[in-house]
Amino acid sequence: MIDYGDIKDVRNRRRHSPPEVPEEDSRRPGQRDRDRILYTSAFRRLAEVTQVASPDNALVFHNRLTHSLQVAQVGRSLAEKLRLSQPELADEVGGIDADVVEAACLAHDLGHPPFGHTAERELNSLAKGIGGFEGNAQSFRIVTALAFKSEDYRGLDLTRATLAAILKYPWLKGQNKKIPKKWGAYKSENKDFLFARQLGAPKRFEHTVEADLMDWADDVTYSVHDVEDFYRAGRIPMHLLARRQRDLGREKKSNIERERFFDDVYRRRAKEENFPERTDMEEAFESLLASFWRIDEPYSGIKKQRSKLRRFTAKLIHRYISGVKLNASTKRVSIDKEYKKEVAILKELTWTYVIEAPALSLQREGQKAVIQRLFEVFANASKSSKTWSLFPAYYREQLEAAKSAAKRQRSVIDLIAGMTEPQAIATYRQVMGAWPSPSLEEIVR
Q1: Is the CB of residue 106 less than 8 Å from the CB of residue 46?
Q2: pLDDT band of 216, cuts 50, 70, 90
Q3: Rounded to 5 degrees, what are φ and ψ at 29?
Q4: Where in the chain are the domains?
Q5: How far apart are CA 420 and CA 50, in angstroms?
Q6: What is the CATH topology of the domain spanning 4-15+27-211?
Q7: Distance between CA 424 and CA 433 in Å, rounded?
Q8: Is 270 buried (19+), middle (13-18) or exposed (0-12) by CB count in 10 A?
Q9: Span 86-98, mean pLDDT?
Q10: N or C of the chain: less Cβ packing under 10 Å?
């Protein structure tokens, strides 16, 4: 028989401080975790970090901050739904706490570097000799080492449940041979990683249920809202993609725009064995559009259009929350297979019409040059205390405490990954002698 009291104690345990909540603090442990994340400078910087389009674009796109807030709302809704609809099973699977899921959702993108996945790949290449760089592992490093609440210990001292829920990829680099390019923690945070993984003894490489909810909330939120953003911006021609055969004349011509889109998807995904068959995805897309899309013209911003677009996104979010339940036999999260296909194809819209567009491709080359030059300058400066004056005070402390060249290089990676995009560009201009800006002094944790 499961002792839920013992489970609760294990879940709420913190690595560095007693589990007891001070009498004057009425918050639950998960709420305290959420608030600690919410008030970090690492979270605030996400306002100036790319979701897909640059945050300084004139159009009101989602950025990493608004995205994280929306993921937190969806994640909390998922957890509350399961607690309400399947309360006993929610306990049996190890516990589902809406506060914990919300906290994990807020933290999931903290390690996202400036310029998004372009910088992530570049930093991984530059950090090859010290264990690489991965955005999810960097998020875990931030909450366990870089951000801090007290001088008495590293990190935010989050509960075991929240740390486990943050681990989208619950393994260290190289441990999971099936997914070698993704991992959830660096070796430098191995003790924190092992502490988190003691929760409920999940199978090797298996998420906790709360991590599953965080992951699905992330997928749902960015797939739906990226389509919303780029339809409004005139980049995704949803009004053309949604045209049905009956709208194409007596000859029932095929939808050429949709054919081009799927041709591009399956050109890009041709080597992926687990990607769904084209006919299945085409049927899922047709069903989604026929059920929910009600706009037959390019976006102009009139009230009627805005209302229909809001209704479209709201219905999809509700649909994808409703499609989640707990499986009594596997004790895992179960997501409707058709909804998974729909979310997958929504993601592909952004890839085809935005991410692989020539303008963004050219921009990415410039962004790689910025990251490379910043790394070159700071990596060289980290080698001698005589040039540590280039670093902000917090990072000078890190360099002084570092006992090896590898740890100093990791501090350089932390510095660059922790910049906002305007900071990265301003600092690049400084090192190129093009703009004497004090922006670097603002890079703090």
Answers
A1: no
A2: very high
A3: -55, -45
A4: 4-15+27-211, 228-357, 360-442
A5: 9
A6: Hypothetical protein af1432 (1.10.3210)
A7: 14
A8: exposed
A9: 93
A10: N
- C-alpha dihedral over 421, 422, 428, 431, to 10 degrees? -140
State which H helix or E strand residue 123 sits in: helix 116-126
Residue 335 β-bridge partners:
324
Q: What is the pLDDT of residues 268-278, one digit of tens each?
A: 998 888 899 99
- Phi, psi at 297, each rounded to 5°: -150, 160
- For residues 210 and 104, is the Cβ–Cβ distance under 8 A? yes
3-state secondary structure 402-436: CCCHHHHHHHHHHHHHCCCHHHHHHHHHHHCCCCC
Contact 147, 192 (CB under 8 A): no
Residue pLDDT, tens place only, 49-77: 986 655 555 455 788 999 999 999 999 99
What angle, 0 to 180 degrees and rounded to 10, lies between the N-to-C axes of helices 393-401 and 405-417? 160
Beta bridge partners of 159: 14
Q: How many CA atoms lie within 13 A of 292 on its CB side?
A: 20
- Residue 255, Cβ neighbours under 10 Å: how many? 19
Q: How far is CA 313 from the centre of its chain?
A: 19
Cβ neighbours for 212, distance < 8 A, ≥ 6 positions apart? 332, 333
Closest CA to 344 of 426, 223, 252, 438: 223
- CB environment 162-178: b (16+ within 10 A), e (fewer): bbbbbbbbbbbbeebee
DSSP 323: T
Q: Is the pTM of this model over 0.85?
A: yes
**Within 13 Å and on the Cβ side, how many CA atoms surround 423?**
21
Return the structure tokens found at 256: 């050429």
DSSP secondary structure letter of residue 14: B
E-assigned strand segments in 125-165: none
367 three-class SS: helix
What span, in angstroms and rounded, lies between the C-alpha atoms of 41 and 197? 27
pLDDT digits (tens, 9 = 90+) for 154-165: 999 999 999 999
pLDDT at 199: 82
